[in-house]
Batch of 3 targets.
Target 1
Amino acid sequence: MDAKHCPRLVLVRHGQASLGTQDYDRLSDLGQRQAGQTGQRLASLLANETALWSGTHRRHHQTVASMAPNLEARVVPGLDEFSTFSLVRAAVVQAEQLGLRRPDDAILADPRTHLSRLLEWFPEVLGAWQDGRLVADDIDPWPAFRHRVLSSVAHWRDEVATGRSVVVVSSAGVISTLVAELTGSGLGLQRRLAVAMYNASISELYPDGDGWCSGVVNCVEHLEPDCLITLA
């Protein structure tokens, strides 16, 4: 069977949210357009008995609504993102103790303007959290996050085995974890992909024996014609 028509797991990052505002967890106008374009790209798949899943964040719900207005997603907390704000705050406080670089206050105060600098630094924060050195009171340890993200994989595999594709709408940290874990690529890829994943990007995984193999990862071909590509 042509890969285009094979049942698969499709991971969609939410559209652009509202970085730098009081309420990040809502799509911008551009994010709504990105989600709509993604829905057009996946239209034939979504019209063909595809299972649709999402996390509980508002940006996930709004992406689903713009992408597939006639479908209802199965909403599960396991697909919710970790709190980037909590990790950054903990890393800033513990930077000297952990031997982490600390961004200038001006960069931390205006993440929208200095996004590239923050994304260059954030893999260090993820690494410290993943190896257990960075601890925050209001965020689970990495093993607990990893466990809940992977908790739905068996369901998706069962769906795909019946010939039904699965589309999952979530966030960069969740999707990068799924791609890295299911393809056996390791935490290095997870950290790199977490900060390089575009809004409304598409990543596809196919069953491969007892594991999974990747098709496209972080694909934004559907956003290029209208110059809708953003990172946050």
Target 2
Amino acid sequence: MPRKIIVVTAAYGHDRIAAMGGQQALLPIIANAGADGVEIRRELFDHTQLDALPELARQIAAHQLEACYSAPEPLFVEDGKLNPLIPSLLLEAHQLSATWLKLSLGHFRSSQQFSLLQQWLAETEVALVVENDQTNCGKLAPMQRFQAACKVLNLPVTLTFDMANWLWVDESPEAAARVLAPSVSYIHVKAAVAHHYHYRAIALDDAEPRWLELLKNLPADAPRAIEFPLEGRDLTVVTRHYVTVLREV
């Protein structure tokens, strides 16, 4: 069975998405490029669009795409408790007919509230995946502690492995892959280069082959998402190129 390729709407850039009228305008591009799904980003919605999730879900289905939903929210807030917004975010993901909801880890301290999270997840068919972000909460040590706690307590939460975010937090992506790979169910494919005091994501064709070697150390059956810049005069052609690359490597 061919591996799934997902296109993250943010890859087209906030300004271009706004000029096109919103994320729904990208659906024909993504579908015609041969992708299997689209990652919808909550931060790219205005209030009107957020109220129209069922209609967006219908459009996604009409283009025969799978949906996943990314929200710029942590699983655990600063006091170490579960983010109280999670039930409403799971509901939004349900309205979008999304297969999974992606959050960052946030301030994970202990598994004391796992039973509550288990309860929330039991009330929805939406899966939860947790990503390493570009903050200290996304460093390897807390991600590894969370991974271990989920395994011990049999919590049905898996990981999104963002291949380049490790660079922002001074971690080795390769070391992270060795430890976290068994729990990874979704991969954000991204390459980055040093830029001023941080990093900048770049297209794969412009990157060193490190990303490809790293990808080989992650689960081959995990959906791969394009989260690097997709730019050019013909966005369908550009997108199709990388969909083909990531399906074949």
Target 3
Amino acid sequence: MHLKHLSLVNYKSFESKTLDFSPVINCLVGENGVGKTNILDAIYHLSFGKSYFNPVSTQNVKHGTEFFVIEGEFEKEGKHEKIVCSFKKGAKKIIKRNGKVYERFSEHIGFLPLVIISPADRDLIVEGSETRRKFIDGVISQSDKGYLQTLIEYNKVLAQRNALLKYFVANNTFSTDTLSIYNDQLHEKGSVIYNKRRLFLEAFIPIFLEQYAIISNKEEHIELRYDSKLAEHSLLHLLTNAIDRDRVLQYTSVGIHKDDLDFAISGHPIKKFGSQGQQKSFLIALKLAQFHFIKEQSGTTPILLLDDIFDKLDEKRVSQLISLVEQDSFGQLFISDTHPARTEKVVKQTHQEYKLFTL
């Protein structure tokens, strides 16, 4: 699968832009602020129906205009696929595949598998657990539509239970029977999500460790662990035991919406004890593992976006990364960089077809 043509109208910094891409390597080079990342984000938008960097649609419309349109022409399994994502202020976003509008955006997720590696990924280390849960859910959802639907249903029930807890306090009342209905639903759906996350990480972690070993040349010991209270007790048990606390807090304090991933290096949190280079290598390994997992599960080679990937990586780590890209297992690749000469030198080492776009 590869993206052949991209057309933008009023998207972020671009009033109008069209690009025809190589099916192998595409390099977007230029000074900071010229729109390299915006082009990568538009490609991401076509795959996921939203921006990677700013999911608020109105903020992706070019200043002074009322709408944006992103159009992409792909080739997948020998077939031509045209995806159009459009948004007008005051209206709902629309995603079309070959002229047909999706009724639900979730139906499109996973059709165009894609992985992005960006400096913004540092949020996975420095931000809270919600960011890391979104990473897990995003990877699983690309190959398991049932998981995404169960997650949507879980979050809906969770919102209803939280609203009920607030209602109890506001009206000085309480009903165990009413609350138990939501507890049963959260237990049912949450247990499915937990088990799928657990099985996913059992398969994902070895791939991640392998990728990090290649990038770091096996010089560092790192760990990735799944942290969930459901490993010890059923969700129904947790919800029942937490009821007094939930009544005081007025929200649901336990459940799969509190799960997390622990990132460690030499037994210590990488957030505090990892260097910038180690943290970035950790994130790159995480995303490359995502790439290989999705490829194996979907049977389609994902598009890989590398946004400003060479920033803060030493020469040895860059070399290790390029050795991975040289492998036949990679498909279409997009790279953004501020140094044209450096980028071209690196991609020439792959001995593969490439196109250089200077913005």
